[in-house]
Amino acid sequence: MRVLAAMSGGVDSAVAAARLVEAGHDVTGVHLALSANPQSFRTGARGCCTIEDSRDARRAADVLGIPFYVWDLAERFRADVVEDFVAEYAAGRTPNPCLRCNEKIKFAAVLDRALALGFDAVGTGHYARVLDGPRGRELHRAADPEKDQSYVLGVLTATQLEHALFPLGDTVKADVRDEAERRGLAVARKPDSHDICFIADGDTAGFLRDRLGSEPGEVVDTAGAVVGTHDGTYGFTIGQRKGLRIGTPAADGKPRYVLDISPVDRRVTVGPREALAVDAVTGVAPRWCGAPPPASSRLSCLAQFRAHGTPVEAVATVSDAGVVDVAFAAPQQGVAPGQAIVLYDGARVVGSATIDTTGSAVSA
């Protein structure tokens, strides 16, 4: 097959590309330039979009003896990922930009272009597995649970899975680094990227403040009493405990957590930990990793609402209006609108949706 290998400049994508070459595919490497003003070096930059990263990717391609190109997708990334991220926080929601990047960039913009250029598939260094099932290709968890990235790939459709290759799905990270050394790849011990790639210094609140400005408001308790002030609701997430700027301690002396964010009246509500409990969520814009379930069907499944969260038993009900209602077997905490909820049947990813509303198990 002709395979386009997405090479970020890290060890995972380099070894993935090497395995694709070793498997006999006709491989071309591509680095995605996603930042209009990339950091020159990784010192002080925590993502995967630096100039140094593009050079590391090119050096790896040279070692593998494959053609290499840089695709400038900065404008597409800004519109589909960065602006969406800012808009979601401005609306009081908690987005996951990695899912949006996989959906809109790596497996939409890149895959579409690759197919148009005559490639058969796109290969990446994600830790996940694509297996042949009774009804076509299926997305499954990786063999290494510590590195499993099936959650952030839960937005992929059946058609996209037909053209996706994840060579690292059966491998643990330590073995990947050892393999990179054996292959003579200079990125073998390069640190992993972390946090949000387009926020170089990791200061999410500062990044949002620069774009949304100061929008001062009140921090209130569940009775509506003002207990503090803030500079913008975008600086808070559901379940947050630290940095609340509360001047009045709780009557019981216990910590308080963010329970609700209301950008319209610039109000953040805080309360006890137990008030975070959620029984159910309603998800919108579902994406199915295979054939969509029949409307009005009920699925016993495992639900996960964080990239490395613990899956919980749940029942999902699919409506014919593009809505998925998910009821948890036990109350969960820290669930926020804007997060993705990914549904599993064992290790297989059934699909995902964006959380629109939550149902509290405990009345605040």
Automatic annotation (TrEMBL):
Gene Ontology CC terms, in alphabetical order: cytoplasm
Role description: Catalyzes the 2-thiolation of uridine at the wobble position (U34) of tRNA, leading to the formation of s(2)U34.
Cellular compartment(s): Cytoplasm
Binding annotation for ATP: A6, M7, S8, G9, G10, V11, D12, S13, L32, G125
Record PANTHER family: MITOCHONDRIAL TRNA-SPECIFIC 2-THIOURIDYLASE 1, TRNA 5-METHYLAMINOMETHYL-2-THIOURIDYLATE -METHYLTRANSFERASE
Name of the protein this chain belongs to: tRNA-specific 2-thiouridylase MnmA
EC number annotated for this UniProt entry: 2.8.1.13
Gene that specifies this protein: mnmA
GO BP annotations, alphabetical order: methylation; tRNA wobble position uridine thiolation
NCBIfam families reported in the protein's UniProt record: PRK00143.1, trmU
Catalysed reaction, written as an equation: S-sulfanyl-L-cysteinyl-[protein] + uridine(34) in tRNA + AH2 + ATP = 2-thiouridine(34) in tRNA + L-cysteinyl-[protein] + A + AMP + diphosphate + H(+)
Alphabetical list of CDD domains matching this protein: MnmA_TRMU-like
Domain (tRNA-specific 2-thiouridylase MnmA-like C-terminal) ranges: 284-355
Family: Belongs to the MnmA/TRMU family.
Sorted UniProt keywords: ATP-binding, Cytoplasm, Disulfide bond, Methyltransferase, Nucleotide-binding, RNA-binding, Transferase, tRNA processing, tRNA-binding
Domain of life according to the entry: Bacteria
Keyword set includes Translocase: no
